[in-house]
Amino acid sequence: MERPRPLPGRRHLLKGAALAVLPYTLLPAPRAGALTPAPDHPSGEWQPAHPSNHTAADRPADHPVDFVVIHVTQTPYANTLSIFQEAGRSVSAHYVIRSGDGHVAQCVRESDIAWHAGNWDYNTRSIGIEHEGWVDEPRWFTERMYQSSARLTAAICGRHAIPRDRAHILAHYEMPGTDHTDPGPLWDWDRYMSLVASV
């Protein structure tokens, strides 16, 4: 019968713990006062999507940005952010706009590729904007939402030299191969494009 080994003493345990911690003490400490970078859109709030739900890129250096794609969430604003922030959901948009007050959340940097269009080519060349609401409930498309979205779209067009017209500001349903219908027939394109043009 083998003799039981004595339990390690306190000194041995503390020495082992110190050795385990040592590599972490050699790592550089975070910079004091380091902040999350500001959103690309000055009035936006940074609400980052999980890295597994979009593609890191260096646009426009590696892909030109030619389009803005308009979406409707089909779920509440907070749910949309939660979906984008959950690992492995394989979906994201650059921005989400809240219905009631037009608040803008940025979830993916404009330089990165959000997974919103259902078409890889358009994903690489576009900025996606989700709008809180349902395609068959026009009450969600508030004046504040339209105005906030129009300012955002105009700013994106300015940053990326995108023409402010319907050939470059597209609906999700216009993406090749998509089965989506958003923003739907109740989205007021004439009003929206007039607001984009007037900013």
Shape label: globular
**SS-derived structural category:** alpha/beta
Strand order of the largest sheet: 1-5-4-7-3-8
Uncertain residue ranges? 1-34
Q: What would you report as the Rg, rounded to the nearest angstrom? A: 23 Å
Give the SSE string: HEEEHEEEHEHEH
Our count of helices gives 5
Mean pLDDT: 87
Helix content: 25-40%
Compute the separation of the termini in Å.
87 Å
Strand content: 5-15%
Condensed summary:
The chain is α/β, with parallel strands linked by helices and 199 residues long.
Polypeptide structure, described:
The N and C termini lie far apart (87 Å). The strands form two sheets. Strands 1-5-4-7-3-8 form a six-stranded mixed β-sheet, with helices on both faces. A hairpin with a 6-residue loop joins strand 4 and strand 5. The model is unreliable at 1-34 (pLDDT under 50). The longest helix is centred in the C-terminal third of the chain and has 18 residues, at 143-160. With 199 residues, the protein is α/β, with parallel strands linked by helices. Helix content is 30%, strand content 14%. It has helices spanning 10-26, 77-85, 120-124, 143-160, 189-198; strands at residues 45-46, 54-55, 67-72, 95-97, 104-106, 113-114, 126-131, 169-171.
Please give the structural blueprint:
Layout: H1 10-26, E1 45-46, E2 54-55, E3 67-72, H2 77-85, E4 95-97, E5 104-106, E6 113-114, H3 120-124, E7 126-131, H4 143-160, E8 169-171, H5 189-198
Parallel strand pairs: 1-5, 3-7, 3-8, 4-7
Antiparallel strand pairs: 2-6, 4-5
Helix pairs in contact: 4-5
From the structure above, extract its key features.
two-stranded antiparallel ribbon; alpha/beta; 30% helix; globular; single chain; six-stranded mixed beta sheet; disordered N terminus; 199 residues
